[in-house]
Write a structure and sequence with these properties.
Elements (H helix, E strand, L loop, with lengths): L14 H9 L10 E2 L6 E6 L5 E6 L7 H16 L16 E3 L2 E7 L4 E2 L5 H18 L12 H13 L6 H24 L5 E3 L8 E4 L2 E4 L6 E3 L13 H15 L13 H18 L5 H5 L6 H19 L10
Antiparallel strand pairs: 1-2, 2-3, 3-5, 4-5, 6-8, 7-10, 8-9
Length: 332
């Protein structure tokens, strides 16, 4: 990935600068900026002088290039044009990505709603419909600038970061890195065995990125949009024991297939993808540790107990990757 040259973090993003940036678009907040839950970027909700509510996102400097952000925006706009319920950035003064004193930012409509219920089969069916339609459009062309989900991108990069991190206790570090490398080797083997066609994905479709309204599911936050296997947008919605997960998969994929054909071979990538996310998450926290928001919100990451549990989790995930994958019944 090509990095943006400017990487001075958020320490210069003062409240006055935030307001000046928004007002540079001819939009004038009448309320304070309410901080929303986001660690990678800085995201705020506000109400403007005509009583309309917005969300403003200031992108982390150095993370994405302008071209990568624009591809995310264009993908969201394409989905919205195809009448999928997706929160896309607003076009203001002919652009969705704006610049102010070294920061890039976008405005979004503020959406109300409630939490997606992962154990509600009716909800899962509706999300399955949305995914089938989204992936059908996602497959009609490729991202040029955004990343492709590969073990070396999410896994090896994370291990390299953790190898340099002082946060892992010295008594555990060698064991942790050895276990992480073993897990990554198993993940690589799993990816090598499976045949799939990478498509444009949401990339981070956990339940928190699905907003439920009276009209159904609305997908939010395409910040991690990427190329990859379709199952990446499904497995994070699975919960419970194996029988429960099989039932959930059956509902999602049956609804998905009403609009698009799902490749059942990709089910074998669920546990490898889960393992990859475990490695990536720890590498992400270590990489961002110099940002004061991270020690404040994740203090346990620097504790020995966390790393002992992380080591145990990786050992368990190695077994999960080697176990028989989830498969659907004979009717499939």
């Amino acid at each position: 990935m090509t990095s943006v040259a400017c990487d001075f973090g958020f320490h210069e993003l003062t409240p006055d600068l935030q307001l000046d940036a928004i007002e540079s678009l001819g939009i004038y907040p009448q309320s304070g900026l309410l901080t929303l839950n986001s660690y990678e970027n800085r995201v705020y909700q506000f109400r403007c002088d005509n009583n309309q509510r917005y969300v403003v996102k200031f992108y982390r400097p150095g993370r994405w290039t302008n071209a990568q952000i624009q591809e995310e925006h264009d993908f969201a706009a394409d989905l919205q044009h195809d009448e999928l319920s997706v929160v896309a950035p607003l076009i203001i003064n002919g652009a969705s990505l704006h610049h102010f004193k070294g920061y890039r930012f976008s405005l979004f409509p503020s959406m109300g709603g409630r939490a997606f219920e992962v154990d509600n089969l009716d909800h899962l069916e509706i999300v399955g419909h949305s995914l089938g339609r989204m992936h059908l459009l996602g497959a009609n062309k490729q991202f040029v600038h955004r990343e492709t989900l590969r073990p070396e991108v999410w896994g090896q990069t994370a291990i390299d970061i953790l190898a340099q991190s002082p946060l892992i206790p010295s008594a555990l570090k060698d064991r942790y890195l050895s276990a992480a490398s073993r897990l990554l080797s198993l993940i690589n083997q799993a990816f090598t065995k499976q045949s799939y066609t990478p498509i444009r994905l949401h990339g981070d479709l956990h339940p928190g990125n699905i907003l439920w309204t009276d009209d159904g599911a609305t997908l939010v936050d395409l910040d991690d949009a990427c190329m990859g296997p379709a199952i990446q947008d499904m497995w994070m919605m699975l919960s419970g024991d194996r029988a429960q997960q099989l039932l959930q998969l059956d509902v999602i994929i049956e609804a998905y297939n009403e609009f698009n054909e799902f490749n059942l071979d990709e089910l074998a990538l669920i546990e490898p993808l889960r393992g990859l996310r475990m490695l990536h998450h720890n590498g992400w926290l270590a990489k961002r540790w110099s940002d004061p928001a991270f020690p404040h919100h994740f203090p346990w990451f620097a504790e020995a107990n966390y790393w002992q549990q992380a080591l145990n989790d990786i050992d368990a995930q190695c077994l999960a990757v080697q176990a028989a994958p989830l498969t659907l019944g004979p009717s499939w």
